[in-house]
TrEMBL record:
Disordered: annotated segments: 19-47
Signal peptide region: 1-15
Organism: Polyplosphaeria fusca
Keywords associated with the record: Signal
Biased composition range(s): Low complexity: 28-41
Protein name: Cyclin-like f-box protein
Amino acid sequence: MYILSFGLLLGLAAAAPQRGGRTGNGRQKATAQQQAAQVPQGVSTATDGSTIIDDTVNINNLPIRFRVSAPADQFLATTGIPGAAATSPNGTMGVNVLLHGDGGQSFFDFPNQAVQANTMGVALLAPDPNLFWGGGAGLERTDGVAHAQAVSTFVTDALPQMLAFNSSAVSFTGVSGGSLLMSGFFIPAQMQNFPNSAVLLNCGGLAPQVDFVDAATVMQQTTIHFQSTQSELQSLQQSIPQAVTAYEQAAAQQGLSADQINALQTVDNTPNGGHCEFDGQDFVSGVQVMANSFSNVVQPGGDGIVTGIGAPSNGQVKTGVVGNENLQFVGGKKRDALPVEKRWVVVNDDP
Ligand SMILES: *[C@@H]1O[C@H](CO)[C@@H](O)[C@H](O)[C@H]1NC(C)=O
Ligand SMILES: *[C@@H]1O[C@H](CO)[C@@H](O)[C@H](O)[C@H]1NC(C)=O
């Protein structure tokens, strides 16, 4: 059991920012993780009026900072959060758990904070000095196993101590490096813990790097959408189609027909734009456009329409993977590292 101490929560909101370390005459540059610690935790209000709590819990010796956005009455009364009213962790609303890209931008933007189709938003911050999900760099995510385990344990053990939610309606969103962890590690090793789940993999994909724990259950029940752009990073122009092919084959090995696979696994990279620029313009606004249409794209009954997606897409992104594994790209930046998106540091640690 992970005992959360919410007595601290309200105090943390006002806690003084920590300062980055220094050595000798020279300044020691704070890591991204240390800089993130300067952004205060606490309670705030979401774009749709939901209540956001931002706090950190220790999971398997990894510090997992989280943001949970929910109607206030869905928090357990025991948290002491204003308006919290739930008396049991068994709720009726689902959750959409987001893993940010390298540098943590989408954790702080929290593009899934508004309730959508009865689904509440959660975002987790990578327990890594660089804020890379899976650690390592580029396509080599050397801490992928441990990070995937921590995400799973957070949702199954820590989240029910603060929020009432439907544990049979847990879905996920990856952004860039977060999509690498989801597809490379989390789906094969942890998704059996989340029945009938769905994953929106934005601007990143990696074939499974570890064995499936329960391939039959996971491949028969999990909805996966791969979303990219025409001018994706060149390294991902290789790894996303490899991931699409690997997941399609994993489903076929479990006896799913082409039609069954296409109903569960879809792919699109029609918008013009670079890495994560799904609206044809920018990383942040592009990720927001996909988050706004999460339910349409991966939840049951979704029509596949993404409002605001970049031209020349007609808005419909649900194209079955079978026969469409070989995505066509145009140009794209050639670099081994994924771009670090870190526009969120608002605290100036200069004296
Ligand atoms: C919550 O649901 C689980 C599984 O359905 C059940 O075992 C448990 O008793 C429920 N707990 C409460 C407090 O209702
Ligand atoms: C939980 O979600 C599942 C899957 O969507 C649904 O079948 C079930 O009715 C939900 N349970 C509650 C209590 O809302």
